[in-house]
Amino acid sequence: MNPKVSVIIPAYNTETYIGKAIESALEQTLTDIEVIIVDDGSSDKTVEVAKSFTDQRLKVIVNQQNLGAAAARNRAFRAAQGEWIAVLDSDDWYAPERLEKLVSLANKTNADMIADDVYFIKDGTTSPWSTLIQESGERIDKIFQIDIVYFVETDVFGEPGLHLGLSKPLFKREFLLKHGIEYDDEIRMGQDFWLDMKCLIKGARFFIEPKPYYFYRSRPGSLVYQSQLPRLNQSCKAATYFMQQDIVKKNPALMRALSYNLSVYKKNLAYLQVVEPIKQGKWLTAFTEIRKNPGFFYDFMSRLNSIIERRIQYYVMNNKSSFDIYPNQQKKRKTTT
Fold first, then answer.
1. Is 169 helix (H, G, I), strand (E, B) or coil?
2. Which of 36, 38, 44, 181 is 20 to 30 A from 79 via CA?
3. Whether the Cβ atoms of residue 215 and residue 121 lie closer than 8 Å to each other
4. Which helix or strand (DSSP H or E) is residue 335 part of?
């Protein structure tokens, strides 16, 4: 008999963290699960740590070379047998009741996807500093369904919003199989957002539970802290692809939302193509990019107050979260019903 939930854990060089991730999956109050780890060509002891667990519900798959998180997750998708698929990053972990709570809510709402709020916690600390919903500016106090336009409008790169692309929904495996939905192997950063988009485009019923059961660890060396240029290039390509779909063209509100997101990706891409070479001391490259982007200085000046404020917060006020996913800023809060 197939398990209720398949927990898939893509892993790459996370020997320090993966043990906690695995333990949190195996110690769920919902015991009818399988846990599938796909090691993506790690050079450390990640595989050794994973194989040290003797629980029969655990399966370890090893890629001989690094293919990226999307490809690793797709391999786990294909191996999964559960009614639901739950993604867990190898440096994050679940609260013990997460799967039981979300599966129960999914059954009550007839969901195809269901997500919870997310705790943000810095590596080396014991308590979360905030949650996804708290930082979003939204007031969400009960479970509600996510509309595709709302999903796109509240997840704009570098801007305040709900950013559900950071959430880790449970997916009904039957829905994924029916529509042939997998991650895009070419997208190595921010791939969750675009997988969610594929599901929503196909009519998935997506609900969010305002209680947090997922712990999202921020740490140096993770993808969040790496160059944003590849992510922005890939996001421009993905947004353009979706905007060319007939179902999107027939939805003016969705078309406007994606068009705005694309313009933001392009603006940030042009800006960072100057800033990142400057940080690396590649002045000739930076000057070349400035010539291509004459609006750079205006863009830089418009960001200057925020840049200064974040550095004051970090270096003077000792606010170590100021360079995390969400900058400290005043947000307009609204109630979502």
1. coil
2. 44
3. yes
4. strand 334-336
Chain CA centroid to CA 274, Å: 26
Which two three-digit tokens encode residue 6? 């398949």
Task: Quote the percentage of the chain above a pLDDT of 70.
Answer: 88
CA of residue 84 relative to chain centroid, distance: 18
Give SS3 for 268.
Answer: helix
Residue labelled with tokens 């982007």: 293
For the stretch 229-252, pLDDT in tens is: 888 999 999 999 999 999 999 999
Q: Angle 12-261-200 (CA atoms, 0-180°, nearest 5)? A: 70
The answer to whether the beta carbons of residues 232 and 268 sit under 8 Å apart is: yes
Confidence at residue 328, expressed as pLDDT on a 0 to 100 scale: 38
Q: What is the pLDDT of residue 91?
A: 94
- Name the DSSP letter for residue 112: S
More confident residue, 58 or 317: 58
Pair of tokens at residue 44: 């450390």
21: tokens are: 């991730």
Name 181's Cβ contacts closer than 8 Å, sequence gap at least 6: 175, 195, 198, 199, 202
Q: Please compute the mean of the pLDDT values over residues 130-144 and round it to a whole number.
A: 91
Distance CA 281, CA 264 (A): 26
Task: Provide the residue count of the chain.
Answer: 337
Nearest CA among 16, 223, 216 for reference residue 121: 216
Whole-prediction pTM value? 0.86
Beta bridge partner(s), residue 118: 214
Inter-residue contact 173 to 76 (CB < 8 Å)? no
| Bridge partner list, 206 | 113
Q: Render 63-98 in DSSP notation, one character per residue.
A: ESS---HHHHHHHHHHH--SSEEEE--TT-EE-TTH
What is the CB neighbour count within 10 angstroms for residue 273?
20
Residue 143's CB is within 10 A of a number of other CB atoms, namely 16
Q: Is 208 helix (H, G, I), strand (E, B) or coil?
A: strand
pLDDT value at residue 307: 64
Q: Please, what is the Cα angle at 185 between 178 and 17, to 5 degrees?
A: 105
